[in-house]
Amino acid sequence: MSARGLGVDGVVVRYPAVRRGAPAATAVAGVDLRVAPGEVLALLGPSGCGKSSLLRAVAGLEPLAAGAVTWDGVSVAGVPVHRRGFGLLFQDGQLFPHRDVAGNVAYGLAGRPRGEVAGRVEDLLAVVGLGGYGARAVATLSGGERQRVALARALAPAPRLLLLDEPLSALDRSLRERLALDVRAALLATGTTALFVTHDQDEAFAVADRVAVMAAGRLLQVDAPADLWRAPASRQVAAFLGYEAFVPLAAAPDPLRRFAGESGTLALAPGAFVVAPEGAGELVGTVRAVLTRRGRPALLVDVPGVGPVTALGAPADGAREGSTIALATDPSATATVPA
Amino acid sequence: MTLTTTRRAPTAPPEGTTVLAPGRRRAHGRGLRTLLWALAVAVPLAFLAVFFAWPVVVMLAKGFVVDGRLDLSGFADVFARPRTWRIVGLTLAQAGLATALSVLLGVPGAYVLHRRSFRGRAAVRALVTVPFVLPTVVVGVAFRSLLVEGGPLGFLHLDGTFAAIVAALVFFNYAVVVRGVGGLWERLDPRAEQAARALGASPWRAFRTVTLPALAPAIASSASLTFLFCATAFGTVLVLGGLQFGTIETEIWVQTTQFLDLRAAAVLSVVQLVVVAGVLTVAGRARTGRERALALGGERQGERPLTLRRTPGTAPGDGHALALGAAAVTAAVVVLLAVPLVNLVVRSLRVGDRWGLDHYAALSDEPAGVTVSVWTAALTSLRVAALATGIALVVGGLVALVLSRRPRRPAARRALSTMDAVVMLPLGVSAVTVGFGFLLSMHEPFGLHVDLRTSPLLVPIAQAVVAVPLVVRGVLPVLRAIDPRLREVAATLGAGEGRVLGTVDWPLVARPVGLAMGLAFAASLGEFGATSFLARPDAPTLPVVIFRLIGRPGPDSYGTALAASVVLAMLTAGVVAVCERLRSARGGLAVGGEW
Question: pLDDT (tens digit, 9 = 90+) per residue, B330-367?
């Protein structure tokens, strides 16, 4: 593996005991990771899994209990936070309340000629879609605008690595989806290497080149989004990615078994079953609830041998709780994981 | 925003962020950093050790060390005197009663002045604050001029009574409760109370069961501060109480200066220290609760205009009567607060049976029994207060800076909380003890052949000792309220520790520092307990001159004292008014200091 870019080797982060005698909490329990120059890597995991602690350790904000953080193969252990050249973007932006938008973006450009600073600030505000906002007070910005300013501020000094700590989690859903694409575009446009922490798989898949799934302080799998979705390394990873039902291959209903390999467990995502057109059903299920997913009809269906699953679509004549319904299967929404 | 999907080549490490080669320069930087922080800890601790702990220890040693041996028989002796028990009882009764009254009157005041809006609210808030910053001697003089035979309220025969002292203490501390409780109340989320109302609670029950418990930390914190101020009151009680009434603080003064009984004074100092330590512990607990509660609040969500008539569209029984009751109580209190102030000014203009500025003209003469004119004393006061404020800002600012850090090691955190308690002690140790301790210890201090008692720096240093806790309590909560991630962001943008302090901490804390500066200045201007011992006869401060003037017989001395009190009151109120403008200026954090 190339030594260029960020290297994380066996990193352990512990928080000291709150009281004397209480045990120290281990947030990160030995993580190895590589981020190549120009790559965007998402660190995906449930809250409390240690992903933010790992990010803070990379930034130099948490001391390492063990392991090393390197850049281009050189340890940064002795380099203080402000000389690492690692930018950081928090969930709530943490804009300086006493500076205007331009003053915030210019903060990391101290020591450069004034004209150059003004030009760079204007450029970056344009990159995040806030051209001309320089003189605005930060208190007048909306939540989405604040995050854009925070992103511009973090990108301004051209950090060799940008660390993003759940930067979109405080925003509402539609804004989050839009901004995720914008963040990816901004990172690509500036060629920034980035480590992006999130608990939202859609966001991770939208932003990152590769996704690292983390749980309980350890990495479970690191892969490109498509590979990750197609071949989750374990049932735990699959469950976190959104696979909702797990059936031992031996016990799976016949129509499902033909997608799978020889052994292991079949993982089913919402959409593994679709409501079948008249007469084309492969399986029969019992409707438990009628749902709507993003405006499209869906059913919570109890399938014998599988359990409750989400089936997409709805029969033309509508469905009622308790009625039985014919289902077809979609192999692209299934995966085989080790038993 | 334009979507660009072309990927630019990754940037090389930009200029300015190049990684420092490991080696000497970094080691040097870290050594300097450690040295600076060590200095930030050592300077205030050394200052307090030399100018606070040492004098107090010397004073106590005078009482407890006989022929080189520790002798604690003074405790038994002093506690055998009925006079001691009477004084301790009086102190607790005065402080307890005054605290209860201040809270009872102050909570409605906090509601009206911080939760309701009306025209002239800013002026009323300012008026309410004036007594708190008035020098204690002035408060004493103002009350006496009101209550003496022939005064406007002379018919009540309250001069020299317990009731007069309690009234003066409430007058002085009402603002402590209003500001402490109001500061939390205006940030309290009104939806909790609204939820209670929607669940069927009457306005009174919603207040009692939801709002009051939420305010409890602020009420406890203000009440313990008020109790502290009342229990250690000196100037006011000395002027109003005469020989019959006193506090432990005045008794220490009486024992040292009148009876020359240092042992009794030392015992009483210890008693006071115990009382104060207890109150400070309660206050500390309440304060942590309050800092936690602050995080919950949004700002000014629940503010509504105050109207005499029920707002059209609201139902009867929706709390209008409660609001009117609070408004009536507050209006009455505001009038009562204004009476002594107006009376002081009126009486200072009264010459015999006519009106005139004669007393003010006399300010430039040297009155009998005083070696300098009032104007000269006022100049001395200003100079001394400026010096004291400077010292207090440096010492208190460093303390607040150190205490606002959050070290990771539990041992370091415990060390900080110990330091927190230690620097608050001057707030509680008798200023009289400090002053007298100075006299005893600064003659050839530590065996050095210098006599600091004649140094013009002595009074400013003593006043700075008293003002340091004010600065710390004003600045520390704001420093602690700054989100640590703001500093972390600055660091990842390339700012070193010094630049973070200069560009993140300082801009946010500049206004509270200005405010603390004003309060420290006002406190120094009015400081009387320690100064009464230390001011040199040829350079007395204004409070000392006023106290000497009212001690002399004759209407002229008394009139001059009244005029001098007005001058001193104007000076302090003016300083605080300027600093208040700093507080109300736009922008900045929503969190203020403790005062």
Answer: 999 999 999 998 988 998 898 878 888 888 888 888 77
| CB-based contact B17 A98, cutoff 8 Å | no
Whole-complex ipTM: 0.75
Instruction: Kindly tell me the burial class for residue B288, based on how many C-beta atoms sit within 10 Å of its own C-beta (0-12, 13-18, 19 or more).
Output: exposed
Note the pLDDT tens digit of each residue in A48-78: 899 999 998 998 888 888 999 999 999 988 8
- A6-238 maps to CATH 3.40.50.300: yes
**Separation of alpha carbons B42 and B217, rounded Å:** 33
Query: How many CB pairs below 8 A link A and B?
Result: 144
For the stretch B536-572, pLDDT in tens is: 888 889 999 988 888 887 778 888 888 999 999 888 8
Does the domain made of A243-337 have the CATH classification 2.40.160?
no
Task: Compute the distance between CA of residue B247 and CA of residue B249 in angstroms, rounded to an integer.
Answer: 5
* Secondary structure (DSSP) of A288-307: EEEEEETTEEEEEEEETTTE
Q: Quick one: tokens of B39? A: 């200095």
User: What are the two backbone dihedrals, phi and then psi, of residue A253, each rounded to the nearest 5 degrees?
Assistant: -60, 150
Q: Using CA atoms, how far apart are residues B210 and B196, in angstroms rounded to an integer? A: 7
Residue B446 is classified by DSSP as: G
A251 close contact with B: CB closer than 8 A = no
CA distance B331 to B325: 10
Q: Where are the domains of chain A?
A: 6-238, 243-337
What domains can be seen in chain B, in order of their start residue? 38-67+356-595 (1.10.3720.10), 76-308+319-348 (1.10.3720.10)
> What is the token pair recorded at A175?
């804004």
Chain B contact probe: residue of A20, A82, A128, A178 with most B CBs at under 10 A: A82
